[in-house]
Amino acid sequence: MLTNIFFRIESFVLLGAACLVLGTSCSPASGDETGHEFIPDMAHPVSYEANLYANYGLNSWDDESVISRRVLSQPRNPVAGTIARGYAGTRSDNALVLDGEMNANAISTPPNGSVPYHYVDTEDDRLRAMAEITTNPFPITAKGLEKGKELYVIYCGICHGDKADGAGYLVRDDGGVYPAQPANLVSEEFTAASEGRFYHAIMYGKNVMGGYSDKLSYEERWDVIHYIRSLQAANQGKTYAPEAPVEAPDDPNAGS
User: Fold this and answer.
1) How crowded is residue 62: how many other Cβ atoms within 10 Å of its Cβ?
2) Does the pLDDT value for residue 94 go beyond 50?
């Protein structure tokens, strides 16, 4: 009889344990909770994600690693002697040509917003940029001027005006709601200004104007500057357009 009692108690214990395991392992998911995992990592990936310092806490591999998780999550520097894609500063399409023929192993690397700018947001560096940045790295093209105009209208025209004379909508209409007169970019002062004055202002802003480095890519900034230069030229009755290609003489001996 005692044996039967122990058997029944043991059966109840086993049955209860089975129900408990069954109930907890099959709990339903709700909201942000995925429910209990039948097998570890079904809901959480074990793969390492770069630049993220919040990988799955149940991973144990990091505890055994000689490199800390924080170090592993940091961005890497480019391999010595190489330039990261997008950091060249100018188009490298010419790298596609080798000895006058297309180089099948070369990769075009058009510039973008990741091109570094080696000037900080201080008055000293603004003056240094004005003195050192004197040319636009991109040639004047019809496509570039068209793109520059489009971007100028979106980001600049409302304040500086369609003609860049400082009479944009915010100061021209409805009695003027802008607290300060925007710069007249076609004035003699700005027409004579270096490219660095415009580029630094686009990067960091000036006075009540904010910066646009997060809105315009590297090439787009220079497209806008090209378009501003075209407005300055038009204000002086001049032409700012792509240079006509020089045609080769018909006679190969001409001019010799």
Assistant:
1) 14
2) no
